[in-house]
Amino acid sequence: MSNNSLTDLHMLVWTALMAATIGAGAYLIVPIGPVPISMQPFFVFLAGYILGPTRGAMAVGLYLLAGTIGLPVFAGGKSGLGHLIGPTGGYLFGFVVSALLCGLARRGDVVISWFKGIAFGAAALLAVYAIGSTWLKFALGMEWSKAWMVGVVPFLPWDAVKVVLALVCSRYLAKFSFLPGQR
Fold first, then answer.
1. Which of 58, 73, 119, 178 is placed for a possible disulfide with 23 were both Cys, Cβ 3.0 to 4.6 Å?
2. Residue-level pLDDT at 1
3. What is the pTM of this model?
4. What percent of the chain has pLDDT over 90?
5. What domains can be seen in the chain, in order of their start residue?
6. Minimal CA–CA distance to 29: which of 81, 77, 101?
7. H or E element, residue 83
8. Residue 94 pLDDT > 70, yes or no?
9. 3-state secondary structure string across 58-121
């Protein structure tokens, strides 16, 4: 095997690992309010920061595929196409865009700067909330204000913290040369 083949294999393993952590994040929940706070967004942001835009989005796509074919990786241990196109499906599709946006922060940099990481993380939050709340509004026939109050407001402070924690983790991994393709 050439060095390039090993690098490709290394990236493939990291992509699969990040998809698995996103699925595991569905089981790491804080049960407050009608919808629990899960760690899935943290792992989505981390996938983007670690893998870059393309591989980060691929990791989320692999996670969505796993849930669609029946693996219990969606929130609450759910799976199937029905859950993917249900009221919260927009947030799941928004995860793909979020990972892509967080990954753009890594372009050209091994260690993501604080400013760049926070800026792209904020854009990632905006994207997932825009897609998710729009989907929620139309899926349940809600008013815009209600979709915003139910689907965004309770989660915004927690998800902002998750963006910062994901950035901290990616910077830590970069500092010690643990990121894929870095050695």
1. 73
2. 40
3. 0.91
4. 74
5. 3-27+38-175 (1.10.1760.20)
6. 77
7. helix 81-84
8. yes
9. HHHHHHHHHHHCCCCCEHHHECCHHHHCCCCHHHHHHHHHHHHHHHHCCCCCCCCCHHHHHHHH
